[in-house]
Amino acid sequence: DYIIYNQELVPRSEATIQFDDRGYYFGDGIYEVAKIYEGKPFAMDLHLKRLRSSAEKLDMAFPFSETTMTELLLHLLQKNNVKNGLIYFQLTRGVEPRNHLYTRKSIPVFTAFTQPSQDLKDMQKNGIDVWLTDDIRWLRCDIKTLNLLGNVMVKRESADNGCQEAILNRDGFITEGSSSNLFLVKDKVLYTHPATNLILNGITRQVLINLAKKYDYKVVEEPFPVDVLEHADEAFITSTSVEIAPIKSVRGQLSANFEVGPVTKDLQNKFKELLP
Ligand code: PDD
């Protein structure tokens, strides 16, 4: 098993990291997770675009071009012989003595690894239980940063309550999941939080919205209050790793139960058709 460190492929067992990397001190870095189907990364162009946008929002330079990055990532997939799985890649701001104030002189450090994806069959067919809790994260959730403590804390809280995902409530409105976006269905219309600073604009979310519109579903991107959950016909989450996972129950700050409904199933089938 190999990993990437800057522009080198290194055996995982021999990989080392610099002590003064700002990724360690400040979580000062950004990342992407892309899914590999039949040896090919899905929507890599959108992942690279989002990585570039995260870098710009954080005033972080790219150490080399997207083309080089893609070549390196494809090389890693080949080397690790990944047919189906996930590829994780990140940029930290680089190495310099610890100081909140960065100098703009460090060179960002690029790392990447591959890992198997989880078995999704049961989750996609029967759905998941989600835990509604407060969104305790910062106000730049649009940036895909390594700083994930808010997400990590609510994910643990949801698991400790027997759920597979945390759904987040900011000031009475639902934003997204701890590592996914949320959609509700009511009378065949899809509802999801708009891509503001309060959510990560998921690649799966973007692909799904385009797909739904193509098949004449109406998609409303507006914030909705938590109690709307009680009146929805169907609900599901989207992410690179779970694709589209129906929600069967909501617990925590509110209780609701859903069937895996026709709109969710239809969109799951149409999404599968996009995959290699
Ligand atoms: N998580 N919202 C948050 C907060 C996320 O962390 C993610 C992805 C998403 C969905 O985005 P996408 O469809 O681009 O995967 C939404 C990744 C998979 C992770 O952190 O592992």
| Helical segment count | 7
Radius of gyration using CA atoms only? 19 Å
CATH superfamily of the largest domain: D-amino Acid Aminotransferase, subunit A, domain 2
Distance between the termini: 24 Å
How many separate domains? 2
Low-pLDDT ranges: none
Fraction of helical residues:
25-40%
At the first level of CATH, the class of the largest domain is: Alpha Beta
Helix-strand sequence: EEHEEHHEEHEHEEEEHEEEEH
What is CATH's topology name of the largest domain?
Answer: D-amino Acid Aminotransferase, Chain A, domain 2
Global mean pLDDT: 98
**CATH architecture descriptor text of the largest domain:** Alpha-Beta Barrel
Shape verdict = globular
- What is the makeup of the main sheet? 9 strands, mixed
Count of DSSP strands: 15
Percentage of residues in strands: 25-35%
Bound molecules: N-(5'-phosphopyridoxyl)-D-alanine
Class based on secondary structure composition and strand pairing? alpha+beta
Give a description of the structure.
The chain has helices at 22-26, 44-57, 66-79, 121-126, 149-160, 203-214, 262-274, and strands at 2-5, 8-11, 29-37, 40-41, 85-92, 109-115, 128-134, 165-170, 173-177, 181-186, 189-192, 219-221, 234-239, 243-252, 256-257. With 276 residues, it is an alpha+beta fold. It folds into two domains: 2-115, Aminotransferase class 4, branched-chain amino acid transferase, N-terminal domain (D-amino Acid Aminotransferase, Chain A, domain 1, 2-Layer Sandwich), CATH 3.30.470.10; 121-274, D-amino Acid Aminotransferase, Chain A, domain 2 (Alpha-Beta Barrel). The strands form two sheets. Strands 7, 8, 9, 10, 11, 12, 13, 14 and 15 form a nine-stranded mixed β-sheet that branches. Strands 2-1-6-5-3-4 form a six-stranded antiparallel β-sheet. N-(5'-phosphopyridoxyl)-D-alanine (PDD) binds at residues 33, 151, 176, 179-181, 200, 202-205, 238-241.
